[in-house]
Design brief:
The protein is of the alpha+beta class and about 220 residues long. It is built from three helices and ten strands, in the order ββββαααββββββ. The protein has helices at about 50-55, 80-90, 100-110; strands spanning about 5, 10-15, 35-40, 40-45, 160, 165-170, 175-185, 200-205, 215, 220.
Length: about 220
């Protein structure tokens, strides 16, 4: 499945320029800036496509925004992505999984960059809102896009990507919980032009299906 080695190193998480918007005026979840160590691992060059996903989920209903076999699979829940990994593990004999947020960020760009190709968004790097094709996904592996520093296709572009791990939010108004969420990373064809910034974070409900959210796979170096 064309996995690429990501060497171990320190990764920068967070930004001193959180995206403006929302109830609090900015995304507090994108601050403060801090650093963590990430062990080396492998990440897939491409996002999972409809064709790949449907080998294990043949009844998957494609989004109207991603109808082709080589479009990234979208409109899947977090649990379906985890189950896809489990089924694929049986076939491949390795422990594939979703990348963590730390791993995804390290793979997306060199430390210190805001985007996969530098300090500013690059419309030649991948499909994103504002490039003239706002109403659907672009194909995976399309040759028009520039690969990132590790040779990854459209990371932080085309669709938001799931990361490994979920978080239960304490409840309000007497309820036990207000839901369970995972962190989505990267931009999509339907978000603002700033969304490909690698430090952007989105809390997405684990049961949501979204035509702007897909995923790519990772596995540990020794798997």
């Amino acid at each position: 499945m064309n996995f690429v080695l990501v060497p171990s190193g320190e990764v920068k998480l967070g930004t001193d320029k959180p995206l403006i918007g929302g109830v609090d005026g900015s995304r507090a979840s994108e601050t403060p800036v801090h650093y963590e160590h990430v062990d080396d691992f492998y990440i897939c060059k491409f996002k999972v496509t409809n064709a790949e996903f449907e080998r294990h989920f043949p009844k998957h209903r494609r989004s109207l925004h991603a109808l082709e076999p080589n479009h990234p699979v979208v409109d899947v829940t977090y649990n379906e992505a985890i189950e896809f990994c489990r089924r694929l593990n049986k076939e491949l004999g390795i422990e594939v999984r979703l990348p963590t947020e730390q791993e995804w960020t390290l793979a997306a760009a060199p430390v210190g960059w805001e985007y996969p190709h530098g300090m500013e968004p690059d419309k030649k790097a991948g499909h994103v809102f504002g490039d003239g094709h706002e109403f659907g996904c672009a194909p995976v592996g399309d040759k028009r896009w520039n690969l990132n520093y590790l040779g990854l296709d459209q990371i932080s572009y085309n669709v938001i990507e799931m990361t490994n791990g979920y978080y239960t939010v304490p409840g309000t108004n007497g309820f036990e919980s207000d839901g369970t969420y995972y962190i989505g990373k990267g931009g999509s064809w339907g978000r603002c032009t700033q969304s490909p910034n690698i430090h952007r974070r989105r809390l997405i409900d684990v049961i949501d299906r979204n035509p702007r959210v897909g995923f790519r796979l990772a596995h540990n170096k020794n798997d």
